[in-house]
Every structure is written in structure tokens, then in C-alpha cells.
Design brief:
The complex is a heterodimer.
Chain A (H helix, E strand, L loop, with lengths): L38 H4 L7 E10 L2 E11 L4 E5 L6 H8 L7 E6 L2 E2 L5 H8 L2 E4 L11 H11 L4 H14 L15 H13 L5 E5 L7 H18 L2 E5 L3 H7 L2 E6 L2 E7 L9 H8 L7
Parallel strand pairs in A: 3-8, 3-9, 6-7, 7-8
Antiparallel strand pairs in A: 1-2, 1-4, 4-5, 9-10
Chain B lengths: L9 H32 L6 H12 L3 H26 L5 H39 L2 H7 L4 H40 L3 H11 L2 H27 L4 H30 L2
Helix pairs in contact in B: 1-6, 2-6, 3-4, 3-6, 4-6, 4-7, 4-8, 4-9, 6-8, 8-9
The chains are: A alpha/beta, B mainly alpha.
């Protein structure tokens, strides 16, 4: 795979430490070495590479994944496209061990996710931030509590949590929504809260399942700008699935197409429109005529 | 699928077999859940805020309906006994009869059934909705064990609050019995009171409380199990609530039988 971004060389701290001046993002946490309890969140190794080998998954008689191979370098921005109900969301869930594999393996750094028990997976998941297709906001918690949740569970100091939650909500355009309940939000707003929650702990690996579904084009652009800025700030590895191929191609540096249970194409995002594979080309261009 | 060689006799056997498999699968699932909950409780480890939140909404909010119902249950005991009390001039046994039935059977069973209908079904619907909206996966993705965070506090809260509600309900039923004895049979409060005190002992009261704790555990495990095993969206949640209420009611009656047989 090409186009993977490496972590900035002048990083002042471990993977989750801020690496741009505070002015780059209003009200962001101060730059510099980790301080106080938030150091718990930051003190983890750099974003690990991810390798998926011959991954298989079936539900009943339906073989959804028949041998997925993916190689995702540290700090890459990978976009996964493919026909609906083709197993993209399942693949994302398998990456953090939420869905067990029937065959093949997933390695995140030195951790073989597919061989781990649930308790062992907890340590791996602490390095992952995930946005679910259906948001998965906890409806018994307010917006602010939802976003704060990953930090609260890590024992981060209350003041730092409040500051970080305000900053994340402002970044996704929901400043002042802390007290609202998820049931009071529209689908697009819930999606943005989900993004804020997925990124609040500055994960090593950010997984976004349809991050802009239900959002208008302007908000879509803003969200992808935010995700890009976050990635450049933290150097995390990003894996995003989206039906909005144009926006995803603009965001990712590498595009992989999942088709009929396997990776049909993987290459630079800039070249995907001119892919030699007619299936990929037709899908990306949205043409009616073709093999699909 | 039926084969041409099989006769009509096969259908009921198939149905029985499928039902037996389903019941075994569910009983096994509940047993596994019970084991995982027990593992989290040794040593006790749970989210204190979730525990308090659940105890409040499951227990406090059930007090009015439990009090109202059990108050009239006390009255019903007296009405049923009234005819024989007059016929046999057995006014001295009214308190004992009402107390014995309420403490040992009517109190724990009735309150448990009400608790199952109100709290258990609500719990199944809530967990079921969380399951179909990926909230449980969301917890796991945040490296949080849903059993420890969501299920254990609910199980503990249901056991504790059903126990407390049974104490409250028993006492309110006795008050109701005394009041209706006075109103309907003209019995003095003191007669009712001494009939109760002289003829019952603490084991009658404890017998019912032990039952209530076991019923609470049963309601908690069945409602949580059917909640987290929901499949199929909103329709699946509806089916799960139905199954949880039925399973809880059946388990209450079965457990009541065995506990009545085994307990002093």
C-alpha cells in the first residue's frame, strides 16, 4: 500500500500527545509533554501497523468475507469502498475483535486480534476509537457524558475531561450541546457526537463506519477536514468506510475495494478513478454500464 | 422439513423436539450469564453509579404500585376468610391466616410477578434496544465489559430492591388486612395484632424474604438474558420482552414450588 503517513518526527510525547500548536484548533489541550491524568491516555506506543490475512466470515450459509487481505501501515488513511451489504462494517468490527473470525488472522502491531480472548482484547481496544454506522450513542447518558465516557473510564481528571469534551464538541459543530440527550438530536448530530466520542481519547487507530452518512455536503467536507486534521495531529491510523466515494477519495490516501468477500483493489486514492479493473472503475464512477 | 415418508405423527414430535431444544438453549444461555455475573461479583466489582441509578428507578418508583396492590391484597385475605370467621367464630385466627398467607406466599409471589411485569420487562426492552442499536458493541469497543458495567448492577439492584419491596409490601398488606378486618368484620386492631404475633414466628417472614431474593435473581437473569440476546430490530425487542415475562413467570412458580418444599 502506498501513501501511508508517518508520525511527525518532532513529536513531543507518545502517540496521543498533541503535536500542533494550540492555535491550530481553538480550545485544544495545551501542547507539550503529557501532564496529569491525561498522560494515561497518551502514554501508549505509536500507531501500530495492521495486517489482515485471509480473513473469513460467514453468517449461516452466507459467506460474507472469503479471504480478505489488507496491509495498513502505521499512520495511513485507508478508505474502504464496496457494494452495500458486502461486509465492510463487519470487517471494521472484526478489526477490533467485536466479531470473531471464522478463518484467517488480524494482527495489530504484535497483537494477533483473532487469537485473543475478550479480556485480552480490552487492552487492544483502548488504542482504538470507533464510530459505528448507527452511532451507538448511549441513550442513558447526555451528549457530554457520551463524549466524556472513554476518558472517564480511563480515570482522566475531571477538569481535563470537561475541557476536552468542550473542544471536541466545538470541533464537530455541536458546542453547547453537552446537556442534551441523544434522543433530542437528529441523525446527523448523533453522527457528529459519535465522531467526537471516537476521537476524544486520541486513539492510535481511528475506525469510522460511514462518518458522513446523513450529513449535508458542507458538513461532510467539514467533518472530513476535521478527521484529516485529527489524523495529522496525532499520526493515528485511520480506516474509514463510506458510501460517499467522492468524499472518501478526497480524504483517504489509499482506497481499498471490498467486493464479493475479498479485496478487489487496493491502491492510491488519487488513481482509483482510473483503475484498470473495470469493476472498480465502474463502482467509483457510479456508471450504469459495466460488469457490476 | 417434512419428508414424504414421515407420517402425521412426526409433526408433534418435531415441534416438541424444537421446543425442548429452544428451552435448553435459553436455559444454557441464562446459566452462562449467571456464571459471568458471579465471576464479576467475586470479588465484587461493578459501577457504583449504575447500581444506584438502577436501584432508584427499579425500586423507588415501584413502591407506590406495590403498596397500593398489597394494601388491597390484605383486604382480599380478610374478605375471603370473613365468611368462615363468622361461621366458626374464629376471629382470633384472622391475623394469623392473613399473615401466614401474605408472608410465605402471596407477598413474595405477587410482588415478584408485579416486579417482573414492571421492571423486568422494562429492563429487557432497554437492553434489547441497546443491543439492536449497537450500544453494547459500543461499550465493548471502548474496552468496557457490558456484563460488568450494565448487567451486574442490574442483577444486584433487582435482587436488593425486590427484597426491600417485599418487606414493604408485606407490612402494607398486614396494615390493609387489619384495616379491612376492622371495617368489614368489626375486629379490633388488637385482636388482629395478637393473632398475628402469637401464631407466627420470624421464620414465616424470612421464608418469604428468601423467596423474594431468589425470585429477584431469576427475574434479573431472565430479563437481562433476553435483552442482550435480541435479534431482529424492534420486532425482536418485542418478542424478547414477551419471552422474558413468560420465562420469569414460569421460573417464579417453579422456584416457589421447590423453595416451599425445601425451606422451613
Amino acid at each position: 500500500m502506498t501513501g501511508g503517513r508517518s508520525r511527525p518526527a518532532a513529536s513531543p510525547g507518545p502517540a496521543l500527545g498533541p503535536q500542533v500548536p494550540p492555535s491550530a484548533e481553538p480550545n485544544s489541550l495545551p501542547a507539550g509533554p503529557p501532564q496529569g491524568a491525561l498522560a494515561i491516555v497518551r502514554a501508549v506506543p505509536a500507531a501500530p501497523p495492521i495486517r489482515v490475512s485471509r480473513l473469513e466470515k460467514a453468517f449461516g450459509h452466507r459467506r460474507l468475507l472469503t479471504g480478505v487481505d489488507l496491509d495498513i501501515p502505521s499512520g495511513a488513511r485507508l478508505g474502504i469502498i464496496g457494494p452495500a451489504a458486502g461486509g465492510k462494517s463487519v470487517l471494521l468490527k472484526m478489526l477490533c475483535g467485536l466479531v470473531p473470525a471464522d478463518g484467517g488472522r488480524i494482527d495489530i502491531g504484535d497483537d494477533e486480534v483473532t487469537a485473543m480472548e475478550e479480556e485480552q482484547l480490552m487492552a487492544v481496544r483502548q488504542r482504538i476509537g470507533m464510530l459505528f454506522q448507527n452511532y451507538a450513542l448511549f441513550d442513558f447518558l447526555s451528549v457530554g457524558e457520551n463524549v466524556a465516557f472513554p476518558l472517564v473510564r480511563r480515570g482522566v481528571a475531571r477538569e481535563q475531561i470537561d475541557q476536552r469534551v468542550r473542544e471536541r464538541l466545538r470541533a464537530v459543530g455541536l458546542a453547547g450541546s453537552e446537556e442534551k440527550m441523544p434522543s433530542e438530536l437528529s441523525g446527523g448530530m448523533m453522527k457528529r457526537v459519535g465522531i467526537a466520542r471516537a476521537t476524544v481519547a486520541r486513539p492510535d487507530i481511528a475506525i469510522y463506519d460511514e462518518p458522513t452518512a446523513g450529513l449535508d455536503p458542507v458538513t461532510t467536507s467539514k467533518i472530513y477536514d476535521l478527521l484529516r486534521a485529527d489524523q495529522e495531529e496525532t499520526g493515528c491510523t485511520v480506516i474509514a468506510v463510506s458510501s460517499d466515494v467522492d468524499a472518501l477519495v478526497g480524504f483517504a490516501d489509499t482506497i481499498a475495494m471490498l467486493h464479493e468477500g475479498a479485496i478487489r483493489h487496493q491502491g492510491p486514492a488519487s488513481a482509483v478513478r482510473d483503475a484498470s479493473d473495470p469493476v472498480v472503475r465502474q463502482f467509483v464512477r457510479g456508471e450504469l454500464e459495466g460488469p457490476l | 422439513m417434512s419428508s414424504p415418508r414421515r407420517g402425521a405423527w412426526a409433526a408433534p414430535i418435531e415441534t416438541f423436539g424444537a421446543t425442548a431444544m429452544q428451552v435448553a438453549r435459553e436455559a444454557g444461555g441464562i446459566a452462562i450469564l449467571a456464571g459471568r455475573v458471579a465471576r464479576c461479583l467475586v470479588p465484587p466489582s461493578m459501577d457504583g453509579r449504575e447500581l444506584v441509578r438502577n436501584m432508584y428507578r427499579m425500586g423507588n418508583r415501584s413502591v407506590p404500585i406495590v403498596a397500593l396492590t398489597t394494601f388491597f391484597v390484605g383486604g382480599i385475605m380478610v374478605i375471603q376468610a370473613g365468611m368462615y370467621v363468622k361461621q366458626f367464630n374464629a376471629a382470633g385466627l384472622v391475623g394469623w391466616g392473613a399473615g401466614y398467607a401474605i408472608f410465605r406466599e402471596i407477598g413474595p409471589v405477587l410482588i415478584a410477578l408485579m416486579f417482573s411485569g414492571r421492571v423486568g420487562s422494562n429492563n429487557t426492552a432497554e437492553l434489547g434496544t441497546m443491543t439492536v442499536t449497537e450500544q453494547l458493541d459500543g461499550l465493548r469497543a471502548l474496552a468496557i465489559d457490558p456484563i460488568r458495567y450494565l448487567i451486574v448492577p442490574r442483577v444486584v439492584a433487582m435482587m436488593v430492591m425486590l427484597f426491600i419491596l417485599t418487606v414493604v409490601g408485606d407490612l402494607v398488606a398486614i396494615v390493609g388486612g387489619a384495616l379491612f378486618s376492622r371495617l368489614l368484620l368489626g375486629l379490633e386492631y388488637s385482636t388482629f395484632y395478637y393473632s398475628l404475633i402469637d401464631n407466627l414466628n420470624w421464620t414465616d417472614f424470612v421464608h418469604g424474604l428468601v423467596k423474594s431474593a431468589v425470585f429477584g435473581l431469576s427475574i434479573a437473569l431472565t430479563s437481562c438474558y433476553f435483552g442482550v440476546s435480541v435479534r431482529g430490530g424492534a420486532t425482536g425487542v418485542g418478542r424478547a420482552v414477551n419471552a422474558a415475562v413468560v420465562a420469569a413467570a414460569v421460573s417464579i412458580m417453579l422456584l416457589d414450588f421447590f423453595l416451599t418444599y425445601l425451606l422451613p
